[in-house]
Amino acid sequence: MASTLVPHGIRRLGVLGAGQMGTGIALVSAMRAKVPVLLYDKSPEQVKKGLALVDKLLDKDVGKGRLTNDEAKDVRGRIEVVPAESGFKGLRDVDMVVEAVSENLQLKETIFASLAAELKPEAILATNTSSISITKIAAATLGKNVSPASEEGKRIASRVVGLHFFNPVPVMKLVELISALQTSQETLDRARSFAVACGKTVTVSKDVPGFVSNALLMPFINEAIMHLEKGIATREDIDTTLKLGMNHPMGPLQLADFIGLDTCLAIQKTLYEGTSDSKYRPSILLEQMVNAGWLGRKSGKGFYDY
Ligand code: CAA
């Protein structure tokens, strides 16, 4: 039976976090879904970097004849920065926010409690988490005086949804959609519709640690790191084997550097703690590299030098 896509009804989007994911989400929302975006990050420096990336990508599209100068200007004009001092109050008018801060449950819980208090009662609160329980994040939206079983508690938490984009967001065609136990069908339908408007194909996963994507990807990356640790092959031979033997665009060690080794470790810890399954135990080498501050591409050193 053919299903119809409900209208997403997002007239203005908030994006929280101007790192590589947040910036990419802001760009595809402004370019593909043509929605005005309010971009917030507590660090003005990060916002500056994010906007520089947006400008670079738009220039590239103009250079390749995929956008006219005027179209690129329109896209750029749809991205507005919320001054850091406004805090989440600056996001008050949005119909949906996508949170894309680092993989830390406590940080996300604090953020979602504030978002639920500041935003319109009907606004969707989406998280781009790669592995953290959406149900826990949804539970954090309730203040101490609101019972999760009350009508008010159910209504507040029903607006939370997982909307997991992939890096680089403008290039990767997938969004994973995850429902918390509390998520309403309306929230799910609207979030899906928004992801489709951004030009993405949507897959659905249950709210389990790592969802489908990272529950499969992270053991693969970790196994590659353990092969390196055991001296089974060089980093180049591990990566080349997977690139040329299996047609992966990047080898697993290159991909880990690309994702960020701190992010890989945070996801692996969530998987391990959430399942108690030893197959998800992070390798010692990964832990050590993160302890050394070797975080992959973003820090200039990971399994490779950049
Ligand atoms: N942002 C935006 N666009 C980028 C980009 C970036 N950071 N890096 C590359 N691109 C674009 C380029 O501009 C180029 O676009 P055009 O074709 O429009 O010119 C295109 O990607 C191809 O780039 P290159 O030719 O420079 O390089 P490439 O062919 O080697 O492709 C790649 C680069 C797309 C990153 C490719 O190597 C790839 O697909 N790698 C795997 C990426 C992947 O698996 N991502 C998922 C990671 S997991 C995740 O994100 C979720 C999680 O929860 C951890």
UniProtKB/TrEMBL annotation:
Molecular-function annotations in GO: NAD+ binding; oxidoreductase activity, acting on the CH-OH group of donors, NAD or NADP as acceptor
What organism does the UniProt record list as the source? Coprinopsis cinerea (strain Okayama-7 / 130 / ATCC MYA-4618 / FGSC 9003) (Inky cap fungus)
Q: What are the BP-aspect GO terms?
A: fatty acid metabolic process
- Limits of the 3-hydroxyacyl-CoA dehydrogenase C-terminal domain: 210-306
Name the chain's protein: 3-hydroxybutyryl-CoA dehydrogenase
Q: Does the keyword NAD apply?
A: yes
Q: Which UniProt keywords apply?
A: NAD, Oxidoreductase
Which family does the UniProt entry place this protein in?
Belongs to the 3-hydroxyacyl-CoA dehydrogenase family.
Keyword Plastid: yes or no?
Answer: no
Metabolic or biological pathway: Lipid metabolism; fatty acid beta-oxidation
State where NAD(+) binds.
G17, A18, G19, Q20, M21, G22, D41, E103, K108, S130, N167, K298
Domain annotation 3-hydroxyacyl-CoA dehydrogenase NAD binding: ranges: 13-207
**Site residues (Important for catalytic activity), renumbered to this chain:** H164
